[in-house]
Design a protein that fits this description.
Layout (H helix, E strand, L loop, with lengths): L10 H14 L3 H16 L5 H13 L2 E2 H44 L3 H29 L5 H6 L1 H17 L4 H15 L7 H15 L5 H13 L3 E2 L5 H11 L5 H13 L7 H31 L5 H5 L2 H29 L3 H16 L5 H18 L1
Parallel strand pairs: 1-2
């Protein structure tokens, strides 16, 4: 790997780039990853094609929001730990500030008719956006909805259906289910030589002990969001089922409408979608809650990137690890679909919201250049028209 060769750019230049991308980068993880390639590989030549591909592979393989992990890895390439740390902070900080400000406005004006009207339309559009994203994640992570895919990846489709059903029925996060399906698929596809029953039992016991830990509000926020951040694979929206179950169903920190509004806030701000945790944390416990939620969510992402980075060439070839991630990913995507059904059943309350959600899905599927912020803006205007004028 080329970490030690002399960099053609300064650390300050890299940090300023990620600060700018975090401030203006709309479009979700796929778009943000594309911007990094265009800007850092093609235009500036700061990162080689090989280094970029290695970073993207690690971001896809390890748990954590895709775009944030790639930013951290690219910071690590020539400037090691300091570069990774500053690049990650610069990328996340602008959107964190924005969601905290929006959280303040939401607490102040959330009861006003115009704010309720805005989120009436926006919430329905968000359901459509998440539904469309879950469809794309399914086809990308498992395969297309056809007989050949069902036959070739039948076990992954089984994990997908089981997770979707369990999430819909129990309306709770099932972390142990994700770990179990990952281990099952690893044993079926590429059983590792080093894995023993003793290690497996230790992992399960660790999860159970971690799951039941109790403390004060900020402590509970830290533990909950750290668990959520540790099981996000690929897209930031994969965190939705974790957040919905813990924030709405188990801890009752937010109402159903507030949760949908929190996801909407993530859609209308630049940077990583996962930054919605800052908005949620603010509504639960003010600025300390926002800070703890964001730090707890992104810390696992940072560690899962920086720790294996120097050894990733060897790790990337391990078929057992790939199989483990494939199994978990199929289950996480299934849980996302289950969460979409749960949220939609509570948020789509009338014909206008149903129409907005359906139109959003078709717009994203068939109008290739349209981006989520524009859809959110149109939905907000429709909400005001329907609630306050019509």
């Amino acid at each position: 790997m080329s970490y030690q060769k002399k960099s053609s750019y300064t650390l300050r230049q890299l940090v300023m780039y990620f600060l700018q991308l975090g401030t203006t980068g709309f479009g979700g993880p796929v778009a943000l990853v594309g911007y990094m390639h265009k800007d850092l590989v093609e235009k500036r030549g700061w990162i080689s094609e090989e280094e970029y591909k290695q970073g993207l592979a690690l971001a896809q393989l390890a748990p954590g929001p895709l775009a944030a992990q790639l930013a951290i890895y690219l910071g690590f390439v020539h400037h090691r730990i300091l570069g990774a740390t500053l690049a990650g902070i610069a990328f996340v900080l602008p959107s964190f500030v924005m969601v905290v400000v929006l959280g303040m406005a939401y607490k102040l004006y959330g009861g006003l008719a115009w704010m309720q009207a805005v989120f009436y339309g926006v919430g329905a559009a968000v359901i459509g956006i998440i539904a469309n994203s879950s469809y794309k994640l399914t086809t990308k992570s498992i395969g297309k909805f056809n007989g050949q895919s069902f036959k070739q990846h039948w076990l992954l489709w089984l994990f997908f259906l089981v997770a979707a059903t369990i999430t819909f029925v129990t309306q709770q996060e099932q972390v142990l289910l994700f770990v179990a399906t990952g281990l099952i698929y690893m044993f079926v596809k590429a059983p590792p030589k080093w894995f023993t029953n003793k290690i497996a039992n230790s992992l399960v016991l660790l999860q159970i002990g971690f799951w039941n830990f109790e403390t004060g509000t900020l402590g509970k926020i830290a533990i909950f969001f750290a668990k959520a951040g540790a099981f996000v694979f690929g897209s930031g929206l994969a965190i939705v089922p974790f957040l919905h179950a813990g924030v709405v169903t188990e801890n009752h920190w937010l109402t159903e409408q507030q949760f949908v509004d929190a996801v909407a806030v993530a859609m209308i701000t630049p940077g990583p979608v996962v930054i919605t945790v800052g908005f949620i944390g603010y509504l639960v416990a003010g600025f300390p809650g926002a800070s703890v939620a964001a730090l707890a969510t992104f810390l696992p992402c940072y560690l899962f990137t920086v720790i294996p980075a120097p050894y990733f060439k060897k790790i990337a070839k391990n078929q057992s690890i790939k199989a483990f991630v494939d199994g978990i990913t199929a289950t996480v995507v299934g849980a996302l679909v289950g969460a979409v059904i749960v949220i939609a059943s509570r948020s789509i309350t009338d014909i206008p919201t149903a129409l907005i959600a359906i139109i959003t899905i078709f717009a994203l599927l068939y109008i290739k250049k349209i981006q989520e912020p524009y859809i959110i803006l149109i939905a907000a205007i429709l909400g005001i028209l329907i609630k306050l004028i019509v």
